[in-house]
């Protein structure tokens, strides 16, 4: 039994570095295309299907089964595609403040209209670039200065597909247990949006008193939740 960890937008697998030592089972942190071990991939070409294929490749390469699949933030639109690719390998899905828009919509469609224009201006040639200043405001509200600096040093450009491609959530119709970790101090995927995702998924819900990057700001707290789910 193992954990498979899928990062969100603007990060790579190293966002899980603080969490992994506290997990009670083997953990595989996947780099989605365009960063880390897959940095050679042109971000401008990456699709949501490519992201799901990367997870499948890593899971099959290690022949992992009975997996607890953990997705953070924008991994919420990758996970259902993974569930369609390797359903027999997944035992439980954990969504950590995960973005789950309405099926067949775009993530951009869920953003406040006043913010959407700014986000769209951050997209060029199929790449989404998040500024350090903007990320600090959204991601680091529960961190001390050193932890915030460490987090921001890991920022990476990302595929615009995460925001602009039509999502396919059919994988969530599969009878695989799921838990949503609701982050009560999240200033990135805010309360209203988390509740909207929860309403769509109807998962078990666990509250955690952290900001958006719980795996960095409170790794022991998040690990405790994951270890209980793992059993």
TrEMBL record:
Record-linked InterPro entries: AB_hydrolase_1, AB_hydrolase_fold, Sec-Metab_Biosynth_Hydrolase
Protein's name according to its UniProt entry: Alpha/beta hydrolase
GO molecular function terms listed in the Swiss-Prot or TrEMBL record: hydrolase activity
Protein keywords: Hydrolase
Keyword Chloroplast: no
Residues covered by the AB hydrolase-1 domain: 3-224
Origin: domain of life: Bacteria
Organism in which the protein naturally occurs: Streptomyces plumbiresistens
Hydrolase listed as a keyword: yes
């Amino acid at each position: 039994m193992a954990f498979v960890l899928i990062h969100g937008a603007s990060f790579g697998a190293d966002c899980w570095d603080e969490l992994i030592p506290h997990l009670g089972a083997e953990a595989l942190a996947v780099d989605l295309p365009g960063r880390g071990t897959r940095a050679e991939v042109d971000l401008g070409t990456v699709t949501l299907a490519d992201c799901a294929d990367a997870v499948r490749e890593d899971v099959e390469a290690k022949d992992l089964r009975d997996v607890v699949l953990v997705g953070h933030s924008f991994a919420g639109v990758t996970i259902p595609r993974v569930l369609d690719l390797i359903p027999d390998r997944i035992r439980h899905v954990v969504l950590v403040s995960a973005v789950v828009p309405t099926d067949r919509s775009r993530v951009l469609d869920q953003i406040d209209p006043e913010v959407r224009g700014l986000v769209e201006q951050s997209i060029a040639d199929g790449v989404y670039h998040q500024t350090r200043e903007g990320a600090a405001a959204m991601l680091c509200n529960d961190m001390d200065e050193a932890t915030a600096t460490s987090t921001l040093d890991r920022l990476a450009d990302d595929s615009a597909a995460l925001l602009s491609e039509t999502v396919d959530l059919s994988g969530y119709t599969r009878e695989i247990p799921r838990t949503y970790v609701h982050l009560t101090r999240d200033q990135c995927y805010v309360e209203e949006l988390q509740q909207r995702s929860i309403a769509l998924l109807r998962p078990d819900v666990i509250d955690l008193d952290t900001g958006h990057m719980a795996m960095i700001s409170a790794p022991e707290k998040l690990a405790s939740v994951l270890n209980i789910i793992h059993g």
